[in-house]
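Good day; I would like, with your permission, to put a structural problem before you. What I wish to show you is a protein chain and, alongside it, a tokenised description of its three-dimensional fold. Please examine both parts with care and let me know of anything in them that strikes you as inconsistent. Thank you for your consideration; the sequence and its tokens are set out here:

***
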Amino acid sequence: MRLLDKRFRGRIRVHIEPCEKGLKWLKRNYEELLEAIFRGRLRTHVEHHENGQKRVKGNYMDDRKDGLWTYWNNNGQKWLERNYNCGKRDGCWAFWHENGQKWLEGNYKNSKKEGLETEWSVNGQKKKQGPYKDGKEDGTWTYWNEDGSVAKTQTYREGNRVD
């Protein structure tokens, strides 16, 4: 494995994406990643719009989406970022409005929503925020008016409203 380490030293960069809840750290074993690159199991996928602008970029590991995938509209503006692990949605994901303001941010675990999700309006004002557990609303959700004042709060348990 030392041969692989010398061969790829300085050529691999790890992208760690900040989330509102903190940093999601790369959990993959360093030597396994180098071996995957060396053996051709890891490949980068890139698509372009007809006008030449990048449309999507991400990686496949053993023919399954893996790591950060980024999507752009046909004018080159990013509109979606998602993380995958072995083909399943896993980690931070985010959507953007056409004006560049963040629209939605949340987390996935094993392809199910998990943790805090936040939605913003086109002007950047928080619209709603609340937690997911095992893909269902679970806990207190807060909804805001356009002026930033709290409109209401609702509590959910396993996807069902309890208040």
Q: What stands out?
A: The chain has two domains: 1-96, 113-163. Confidence is low (pLDDT under 50) at residues 1-28. The chain is about 10% helix and 55% strand. The two ends are 58 Å apart (CA to CA).
